[in-house]
Amino acid sequence: MKLVQHLINQRAQVITGDELMKYAKGLSISLKQEEAEKIASQLRRKKVDLFNDGERIQLLKEIARITNEQTARKLNRLFSMFQP
């Protein structure tokens, strides 16, 4: 399971705004291109362990500042899909 977590975290660290838009659209998460680029930039800049509750919550707070709280909650649903 650690290998899968590592691969997911590694993928999050190289995601592009366009890819994030694709995932968001697939889950009916409303996201503007500019927001997706900023979120992807945050993910690339910070090494965040999406499986660590504290790190994920801090990231979601930053995402809420970039977008809004509702979008951050929806992205948390996306991240939670990968939880063991």
From TrEMBL:
The name this protein goes by in its record: DUF2624 family protein
